[in-house]
């Protein structure tokens, strides 16, 4: 019924650009989890291997076949993963993890925020509003303090505050030209704060500054593009990490709902909808 | 005299743990008697500050962002020490049990020993290794007192008979070989749908047959008590229905089961007789859903389609199965091409299209000749999508008939690749000035991970005619391919 | 309900059980049993019953009850069965004809022929051997064992290890370099052999008579706690033995020369370890239905296996060279295929099986110290009991894994490892390295067929 004697991986998915194993040398295994196997390259960069339910992450490799993922994880757990196995996969697909400008829906965002308000409170999520306001304020006066309060803050191995920043950043990129000032503000202030958080968050935030985000974050952006998609998005996001999924949604939804105020250079568009390009 | 609360922390350097595990750990610790509050966070400056603000930061705690910090405030030192110790054990236990430090058990004996030591002594072995070895593993499992779920096929029939006799003698289940679906005590094994718990016990010599019947029962409001797969060859003359009859006896004695349904392709005649006798002896309302056999009411209800079988079983519970064939205009006579992932669904379609007298080519892409060196279409749609796209270039094909099977173990996103292929097929057909009608059914429930509604919507959005059962899809395809409009009930 | 809560052992694809609570699933790291040989897997399954378990218990009781004592050193012709008369030379490994023998073994036989005076020069010795003028038989058939070429001649002195009415024998270890057991046969080698016959042997015998029998189990048990593994690292045992006998040797003529010889030979105790292991394992030969391995031995061309339930029958398969660390200038292309009876130490449970106690061995055979521990732990999966007399301190004094079970080898796919020296393929060059070999799977496949046929 299924083929048993496969040594080569049947397929894998990598982000567009140079493959993550290029120049990687020998990797060490940081963590082996259910849907994520975290490797570290000698140059310090992370190389996450993920399962189909986790989705592709920046700098990572997605192994769609669960049996193959399990087998690779087991090898990595023994500390002996040879990246040549990835290179030798029979089919290597690329997926562009870059964010392109696109539509976002304020009503969808407000719906999501309404549902989140009913969830058990997670302290850092309140701070999302402050962050978005700071981005809307002239000169971004308060922004440093807001970021300082969020980076590395909260529960989880990717702390909540970081997921909120990721969500906001994703929306900034999604807003294209309108988000340029906000993006510049992030780029000038966030990098120096990155040592204040875990290596996984650093990895994801650094990529997000360049507009490259994980499949899951793309799912959040898609889910916030129309009201009908919100329930499905929330249901899926609830299952990501302990609070990670809903934290991402909180950040992105707050930024979307506050969007027309957030982007000081923004045009109004139709009431309730912000459409770009 | 009460002692004042004690605050203490432990730092685990560069320890990475899934957030879910951390949350569970913190939560478990907080429930411990005498524990006031627990913090389980990464040692980032922001988190240390948050701890400090809630008076949860011991003096002189040093941590870097990649360290895991566990802080406990408790009523006395003993409690705090105990809680931190428990946390350390739980965190490092996970590490030691990881594949890195202890090699996973490799044999049945080692597996039983390891699992028993961990407090989870196994009572069932799930086997999906190559067929010839499956017999050895199954025997080891049965001899150790485990039920067996055997997904592997290509086992010699002599082995199957010997193993099933051994199982029956020891009151154990030998589900398989070639068994893809089971639900034991509400727990799904292999390809199974998320169905409501209830009082219908199914014994199935067919995987997708069981899936379709269980989904239709769920649709009618009924539920499943047990779904016992017996493997595709159980009701052959060689195996004589050994396991089917054993399962029927088991369900007869099971308090949770009110109605017994057997699902299979037609058994050998003498085997069918013994089966019906066993069902009568069971003393409970029963339906024998034996594909293509003529309907009968005595000695036991027999139905020749999966839809009919599900309907009869639902009626025994006073429920009705509502299936409305979509209204479509009869088309000009042309060929139906069926590209199926489910074997029994293909067989049901073949029967119904044959009865309708329509020119049809029905292909079970899960069959042996298509799965050598390829994953099964229910796991990976790749080959099926190729065949669908090619269908557009076949001038004789006017109607494409598909099944989409949801549930555990099936592809997480079964429909999107099919839609792309359908669009490609329509494009090539259209370039030739031909129309391609696409009919499909989705075997699934609202509870399935892929989402029944979403899958149906995706198909509808691609102009596919979506039917509520496989039988309905076959009837609809027949009409679209020019079958004569018949008196209601005849095609059924 | 069918169960009291479903708990699953998953053998194969994780996909099948993905809907279950992972806490209730134990995943096997499964691979085909019996090295992929389906018939052998079924034969093994047919033997996996109470009858075999009881027989193996009996075998292990017998093996572990043996307490070999070094009671003396005598000329082989006086004590080794079948060596009293006629021209006979014993060799390591399963039976093999002179024409098929490897270089080092032929060289050793030539040296032994010269020692006995049956020929005047090497060419004459070669002709005599090739003509069949000398009976050539395995040491194992005469209750003896020999390292590397393992050649034993009637006039050679042998260690006598006894317990109750039974004895086992092994030659005296010559030391390293150009020695008989690596196939050298020049005047230096034969001269040393004469000295050992005339001086060393009698001296050690006299010392044992004066000091009393040496309990080898206690000796090697102590050595294992000092970093030896009783096959390739023997410096502690050799030192303990020398210290035990030295006061007596010091009183003898040539005592100083003998002491200097012992002081320079780190592997002197190896042959005693082998004789003791041989005596222990032979206690299980012929116990019906037992699947315990009683001997592993190599003759430089074939690997031989004996199993308790099939008595004296050999199961053989071609053997290749060991891979490991080579001395500078040498590589695997120079290596002789695996050679020697010293795998009797692993058969008992020391040597490679006790590597956890001897992490320093990795300096010679390669690998890391955690590999050494991992190897011992892996050998637990194919053995029956820990040996109560050989505790391994780094493993909390757990006894070394003992009693290789053919059925467990086939079920797990784990092969016994042997720490071994590597000889140059040309006679007389000597040792060129050390490494780890695994017993070949074919011998276990053959053995299970024979065991099943006896039922």
Strand and helix map with partners:
The complex is a heterotrimer of chains A (277), B (492) and C (455).
Chain A: E1 11-15, E2 28-32, E3 36-40, E4 46-51, E5 61-63, H1 66-77, H2 84-87, E6 91-95, E7 104-105, H3 106-117, H4 123-136, H5 143-150, H6 160-174, H7 180-189, H8 199-209, H9 215-223, H10 230-238, H11 244-257, H12 259-262, E8 273-274
Parallel strand pairs in A: 1-6, 4-5
Antiparallel strand pairs in A: 2-3, 3-4, 7-8
Helix pairs in contact in A: 3-11, 4-5, 4-6, 4-11, 6-8, 6-9, 6-11, 9-10, 9-11, 10-11
Chain B: E1 6-12, H1 19-30, E2 35-42, H2 45-53, E3 68-74, H3 77-97, H4 108-117, E4 124-127, H5 131-143, E5 147-150, H6 157-169, E6 174-175, E7 181-184, E8 187-190, E9 197-204, H7 207-220, E10 224-229, H8 242-253, E11 259-264, H9 269-282, E12 286-290, E13 301-303, H10 306-316, E14 335-340, H11 343-355, E15 360-364, H12 368-371, H13 382-391, E16 397-405, H14 415-431, E17 437-443, H15 452-461, E18 465-467, H16 470-480
Parallel strand pairs in B: 4-5, 5-6, 9-10, 9-11, 11-12, 12-13, 14-15, 14-16, 16-17, 17-18
Antiparallel strand pairs in B: 1-3, 2-3, 7-8
Chain C: E1 8-11, E2 25-27, H1 38-47, H2 50-65, E3 69-75, H3 76-79, E4 88-91, H4 103-115, H5 122-130, E5 135-138, E6 144-145, E7 157-163, E8 166-171, H6 187-211, E9 214-215, H7 216-224, H8 235-249, H9 255-264, H10 268-282, E10 293-299, E11 302-307, E12 315-318, E13 323-326, E14 339-340, H11 344-348, H12 362-365, H13 369-380, E15 383-392, E16 398-404, H14 406-412, E17 417-423, E18 431-438, H15 441-453
Parallel strand pairs in C: 1-2, 4-5, 6-8
Antiparallel strand pairs in C: 3-7, 3-9, 7-8, 10-11, 10-14, 11-12, 13-18, 15-16, 17-18
Explain the overall architecture.
The complex is a heterotrimer of chains A (277), B (492) and C (455). By secondary structure, chain A is an alpha/beta fold. Chain A is built from 12 helices and 8 strands. Chain A has helices at residues 66-77, 84-87, 106-117, 123-136, 143-150, 160-174, 180-189, 199-209, 215-223, 230-238, 244-257, 259-262, and strands at residues 11-15, 28-32, 36-40, 46-51, 61-63, 91-95, 104-105, 273-274. In chain A, a hairpin with a 5-residue loop joins strand 3 (36-40) and strand 4. In chain A, helix 6 packs across helix 11. Chain A is globular and about 55 Å long. With 492 residues, chain B is an alpha/beta fold. Chain B folds into 4 domains: 6-96, Gyrase A, domain 2; 120-178, 3-Layer(aba) Sandwich (Rossmann fold), CATH 3.40.50; 179-319, Succinyl-CoA synthetase domains (Rossmann fold); 335-480, 3-Layer(aba) Sandwich (Rossmann fold), CATH 3.40.50. Chain B is built from 16 helices and 18 strands. The longest helix of chain B is centred in the N-terminal third of the chain and has 21 residues, at 77-97. Residues 94-101 and 487-492 of chain B have low confidence and may be disordered. Chain C is 37% helix and 21% strand. Chain C is built from 15 helices and 18 strands. Chain C has a 5-stranded mixed sheet with strand order 6-8-7-3-9. The two termini of chain C are 41 Å apart. Chain C has 455 residues and is α+β, with helices and mostly antiparallel strands. Chain C folds into 3 domains: 1-29, no CATH class; 46-64 and 285-453, v583 fold, CATH 3.90.1700; 66-275, Enterococcus faecalis V583 fold, CATH 3.90.1710.10. Chain A binds chain C through residues 2, 34, 66-67, 70, 74, and chain C through 13-15, 18, 22, 27, 29. Strand 4 (124-127) of chain B pairs parallel with strand 1 (8-11) of chain C, so a sheet runs across the interface.
């Amino acid at each position: 019924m299924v083929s048993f004697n496969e040594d080569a991986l049947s397929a894998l998915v990598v982000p567009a650009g140079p493959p993550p194993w290029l120049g990687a040398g020998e990797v060490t295994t940081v963590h082996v989890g259910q849907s994520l196997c975290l490797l570290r390259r000698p140059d310090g960069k992370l190389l996450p291997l993920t399962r189909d339910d986790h989705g592709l992450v920046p700098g990572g490799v997605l192994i769609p076949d669960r049996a193959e993922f399990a087998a690779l994880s087991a090898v990595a757990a023994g500390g002996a993963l040879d990246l040549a196995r990835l290179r030798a996969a029979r089919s290597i697909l690329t997926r562009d993890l870059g964010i392109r400008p696109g539509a976002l829906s304020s009503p969808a965002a407000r719906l999501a925020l309404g549902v989140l308000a009913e969830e058990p409170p997670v302290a850092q999520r309140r701070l999302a509003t402050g962050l978005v306001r700071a981005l809307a304020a002239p000169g971004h006066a308060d922004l440093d303090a807001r970021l300082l309060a969020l980076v590395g803050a909260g529960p989880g191995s990717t702390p909540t505050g970081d997921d909120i920043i990721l969500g906001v950043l994703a929306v900034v990129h999604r807003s294209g030209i309108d988000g340029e000032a906000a993006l510049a503000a992030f780029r000038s202030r966030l990098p120096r704060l990155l040592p204040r958080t875990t290596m996984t968050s650093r990895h994801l935030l650094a990529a997000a500054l360049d507009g490259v985000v994980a499949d899951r974050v793309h799912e959040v952006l898609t889910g916030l593009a129309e009201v009908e998609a919100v329930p499905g998005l929330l249901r899926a996001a609830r299952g990501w990490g302990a609070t990670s999924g809903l934290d991402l949604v909180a950040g992105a939804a707050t930024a979307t709902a506050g969007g027309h105020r957030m982007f000081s250079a923004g045009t109004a568009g139709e009431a309730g909808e912000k459409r770009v390009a | 005299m009460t002692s004042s609360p004690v605050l203490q922390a432990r730092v685990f350097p560069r320890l990475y743990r899934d957030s879910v595990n951390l949350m569970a750990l913190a939560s478990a610790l907080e429930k411990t008697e005498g524990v006031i509050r627990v913090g389980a966070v990464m040692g980032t400056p922001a988190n240390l500050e948050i701890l400090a603000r809630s008076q949860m930061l011991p003096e002189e705690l040093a941590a870097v962002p990649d360290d895991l910090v566990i802080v406990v405030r408790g009523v006395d030192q003993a409690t705090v020490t105990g809680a931190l110790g428990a946390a350390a054990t739980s965190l490092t236990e996970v590490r030691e049990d990881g594949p890195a430090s202890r090699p996973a058990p490799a044999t049945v004996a080692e597996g039983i020993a390891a699992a028993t030591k961990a407090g989870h002594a196994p009572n069932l072995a799930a086997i999906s290794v190559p067929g010839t070895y499956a017999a050895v593993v199954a025997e080891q499992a049965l001899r150790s007192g485990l039920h067996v779920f055997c997904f592997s096929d290509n086992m010699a029939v002599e082995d199957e008979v010997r193993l099933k006799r051994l199982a029956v003698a020891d009151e154990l289940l030998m589900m398989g070989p070639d068994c893809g679906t089971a639900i034991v005590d509400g727990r799904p094994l292999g390809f199974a749908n998320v169905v409501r718990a209830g009082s219908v016990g199914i014994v199935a010599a067919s995987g997708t047959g069981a899936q379709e019947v269980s989904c239709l029962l769920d649709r009618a409001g009924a539920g499943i008590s047990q779904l016992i797969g017996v493997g595709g060859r159980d009701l052959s003359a060689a195996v004589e229905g050994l396991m089917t009859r054993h399962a029927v006896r088991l369900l007869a004695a099971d308090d949770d089961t009110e109605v017994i349904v057997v699902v299979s392709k037609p058994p050998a005649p003498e085997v069918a007789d013994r089966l019906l006798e066993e069902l009568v002896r069971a003393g409970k309302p029963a339906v024998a859903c034996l594909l293509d056999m003529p309907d009968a009411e005595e000695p036991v209800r027999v139905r020749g389609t999966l839809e009919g079988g599900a309907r009869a079983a639902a009626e025994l519970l006073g429920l009705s199965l509502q299936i409305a064939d979509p209204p479509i205009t009869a088309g000009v006579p042309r060929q139906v091409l069926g590209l199926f992932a489910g074997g029994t669904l293909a067989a049901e379609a073949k029967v119904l299209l044959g009865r309708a007298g329509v020119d049809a080519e029905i292909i079970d892409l899960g069959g042996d000749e298509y799965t050598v060196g390829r994953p099964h279409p229910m796991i990976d749609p790749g080959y099926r999508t190729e065949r669908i796209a090619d269908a557009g270039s076949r001038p004789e094909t006017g109607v494409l008939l598909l099944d989409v099977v949801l549930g555990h173990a099936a592809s997480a996103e079964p429909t999107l690749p099919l839609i792309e292929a359908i669009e490609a097929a329509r494009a090539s057909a259209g370039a030739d000035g031909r129309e391609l009608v696409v009919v499909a059914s989705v075997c699934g429930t609202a509870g399935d991970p892929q989402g029944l509604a979403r899958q149906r919507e995706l198909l509808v959005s691609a102009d596919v005619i979506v039917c509520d059962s496989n039988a309905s899809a076959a009837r609809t395809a027949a009409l679209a391919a020019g079958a004569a409009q018949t008196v209601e009930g005849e095609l059924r | 309900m069918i169960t009291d809560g479903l708990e699953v052992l998953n053998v194969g694809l994780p996909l099948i059980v993905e809907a279950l609570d992972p806490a209730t699933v134990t995943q096997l790291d499964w691979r085909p049993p019996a090295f992929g040989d389906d018939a052998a897997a079924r034969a093994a399954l047919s033997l996996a019953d109470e009858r075999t378990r009881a027989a193996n218990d009996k075998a292990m009781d017998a093996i572990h009850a043996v307490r070999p004592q070094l009671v003396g050193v005598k000329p082989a012709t006086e004590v080794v069965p079948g060596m009293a008369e006629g021209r006979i030379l014993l060799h390591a490994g399963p039976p093999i004809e002179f024409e098929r023998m490897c270089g080092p073994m032929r060289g050793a036989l030539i040296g032994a022929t010269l020692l006995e005076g049956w020929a005047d020069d090497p060419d004459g010795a070669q002709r005599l051997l090739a003509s069949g003028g000398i009976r050539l038989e395995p040491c194992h058939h005469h209750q003896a064992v020999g390292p590397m070429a393992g050649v034993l001649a009637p006039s050679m002195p042998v260690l006598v290890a006894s317990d109750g009415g039974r004895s086992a024998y092994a030659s005296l270890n010559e030391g390293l370099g150009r020695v008989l057991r690596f196939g050298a046969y020049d005047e230096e080698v034969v001269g040393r052999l004469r000295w050992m016959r005339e001086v060393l042997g009698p001296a050690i015998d006299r010392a044992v008579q004066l000091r009393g029998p040496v309990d080898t189990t206690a000796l090697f048990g102590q050595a294992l706690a000092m970093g030896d593994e009783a096959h390739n690292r023997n410096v502690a045992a050799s030192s303990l033995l020398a210290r035990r006998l030295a006061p007596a040797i010091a009183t003898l003529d040539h005592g100083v020369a003998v002491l200097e010889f012992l002081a320079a030979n780190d592997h002197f105790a190896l042959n005693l370890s082998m004789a003791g292991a041989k005596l222990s394992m032979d206690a299980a030969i012929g116990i019906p239905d037992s699947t315990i391995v009683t001997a592993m031995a190599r003759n430089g061309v074939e690997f031989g296996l004996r199993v308790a339930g099939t008595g004296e029958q050999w199961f053989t398969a071609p053997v290749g060279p060991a891979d490991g660390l080579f001395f500078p200038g040498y590589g695997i292309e120079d290596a002789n295929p695996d050679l020697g009876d010293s795998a009797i130490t692993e058969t008992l449970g020391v040597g490679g099986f006790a590597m956890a106690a001897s992490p320093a061995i990795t300096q010679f055979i390669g690998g890391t110290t955690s590999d050494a521990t991992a190897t011992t732990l892996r050998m637990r999966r194919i053995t029956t009991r820990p040996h109560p007399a050989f505790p391994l301190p780094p493993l909390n004094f757990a006894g070394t894994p003992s009693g290789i079970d053919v059925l467990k080898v086939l079920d797990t796919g784990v092969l016994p490892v042997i720490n071994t020296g590597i000889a140059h393929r040309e006679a007389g060059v000597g040792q060129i390295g050390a490494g780890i070999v695994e017993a070949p799977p074919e011998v276990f496949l053959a053995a299970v067929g024979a065991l099943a046929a006896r039922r």
